[in-house]
Amino acid sequence: MQVDILNPDKTLFSGEAQVVTLPGIKGSFQILNNHAPLISSLTSGKLVIENGTEKQSFDITGGIVEVLKNKIVVLV
To answer: Which CATH number characterizes residue 8's domain?
Structure first.
C-alpha cells in the first residue's frame, strides 16, 4: 500500500507499507492491504508503519486518516 503522512509544512513520510497501526479515538486499529474505504479521526499516540522487517514510528497529537484503493493519506 502507498502511505503518505502529511502535516501543514511538509511530507513526513511517503512510501510503501504492509501494515499501518494508528491511534483511533476509540482505540488503536490496523490497516492492511486491500482495506475497505475509511475515513477516521485520530488522537494522540504512536503511528507505526511496517514493511517486512522494517518498522517506523511517529508520535502524533491527532489528525485524520483516509484509506481508498490501497492508498493511505494521514493528515497530522
So the answer is: 2.60.15.10
Q: Give the pLDDT score at 62.
A: 96
Q: Are 70 and 1 in contact (CB under 8 A)?
A: yes
For the entire predicted model, the pTM comes to 0.93
Where in the sequence is the domain holding 35, given as residue range(s)? 2-75
Residue 43 identity (one-letter amino acid): T
Number of structural domains, the chain?
A: 1
- Triad 73, 20, 55: Cα angle to 5°: 120
**Cα–Cα distance, 9 to 69 (Å, whole number):** 26
Q: Could you give phi then psi for residue 52, rounded to 5 degrees?
A: 70, -125
**pLDDT value of position 33:** 95
